[in-house]
Design brief:
By secondary structure, the protein is mostly helical. The protein has one domain. The protein has 3 helices and no strands. The chain has helices spanning about 1-10, 15-35, 35-60. α2 runs antiparallel to α3 (about 35-60). The N and C termini lie far apart (about 30 Å). The relative contact order is 0.11.
Length: about 70
């Protein structure tokens, strides 16, 4: 069962694509559910978290770890 779930949730995709998809899905869902006033507040609250997330997301696209 674990192997099936791993395969279903992008197990065969490269690390960079898994990270990108795992970040974009919650961002997309939040943008669909949030109103304008909630989005503005959440941007201010979550702003200290943006830099580490962006760095973590971009690293596999820039650095070749082979």
């Amino acid at each position: 069962m674990n192997k099936l779930l791993y395969t279903f949730f992008f197990g065969y995709a490269a690390l960079k694509w898994r990270r990108l998809i795992r970040v974009l899905i919650p961002v997309f869902l939040f943008s669909m559910l949030a109103t304008d006033s909630e989005a503005g507040i959440m941007i201010i609250v979550w702003s200290p978290v943006y830099v580490p997330i962006i760095s973590w997301l971009i690293k596999p696209f820039v650095v070749d770890e082979k």
